[in-house]
Amino acid sequence: MHAVTYITRHRRWPARLGWGGEGLYSRFRWHRERSLPLVRRVLLVHPRLPEAFDGLTVAQVSDVHAGQFMTPDRLEKVRALVCRLAPDMIVFTGDQLDRRPVDAELFVQAFAGLSAPLGVYGILGNHDYLAGRELAVAALEAAGITPLVNEAALVQRRGASLLLAGVDDLDAPRPFGPDFSVLQTDNGFFKLLLCHQPRLWPEAIRHGADLTLSGHTHGGQISPIGERFSVARLATRFVAGAYVSGSHLLYVSRGVGVGAVPLRVGTLPEVDLITLHRGQPAASL
Ligand SMILES: [Fe+2]
């Protein structure tokens, strides 16, 4: 398995500061949520990907947190950014809503009618439950996004299929919660899983997920000395970026919004454009 990530859009002035200045800028600039998310282009290579899906592009939009810190104009800019990427498929990997019921309205107004040739799908995150499970699912549906909450869909391209599944959030109150049996299938499909919290990746692997897309961590959100040393590390070692385990891949988005406090330090908001390729196992990261 092979994974490469790089950012394609920088603001201009930090580059003029030189390497050291840019590093300081990136680590210590406060309240950067006012800026647009970056586009992080991610290349993931997996030998089991059907040839028909070689080159598939997936825009991952995670942790939007529509709410008091994610205003309508910023949401509109995120939507425009996603549209410009023109991906084959769009996935929302949880925390679409920050916490208030009214946040559902913000989300729907911003993303209603968003489309992609192979569909737009979404799962729930822990913050969606703060606004309410039913409301959060209804918000996805009202925006025209197919909810995959312990559900799976067959995505077809050029005569081949892959299994796209989504699980409920780990912190959902019982009787809700993640049900990995949605990955069960006897027909050898490539399995792409949407799972909000990356610490469930070992469970996803046990159930055969070839590629798992997660969010939740916000890249640590406040990581003044690097993502590896953020508080998110207390909950999971999968904080941001791509991870490889045997024949399984995980990608953890740093997400668009913020939770709890309107502050990011050392980790930029991002929308991810993931390109999938079929290929032989290559060097790990
Ligand atoms: Fe979040």
Automatic annotation (TrEMBL):
GO MF annotation terms: metal ion binding; UDP-2,3-diacylglucosamine hydrolase activity
GO biological process: lipid A biosynthetic process
GO cellular component terms, A-Z: membrane
Entry keyword annotation includes rRNA-binding: no
Taxonomic superkingdom: Bacteria
Pfam family name, one: Metallophos
UniProt xrefs under CDD domains: MPP_YkuE_C
Matches recorded under Gene3D superfamilies: 3.60.21.10
Domain Calcineurin-like phosphoesterase residue range list: 57-219
Keywords assigned: Hydrolase, Metal-binding
Protein name (database record): Calcineurin-like phosphoesterase domain-containing protein
Source species: Thermoanaerobaculum aquaticum
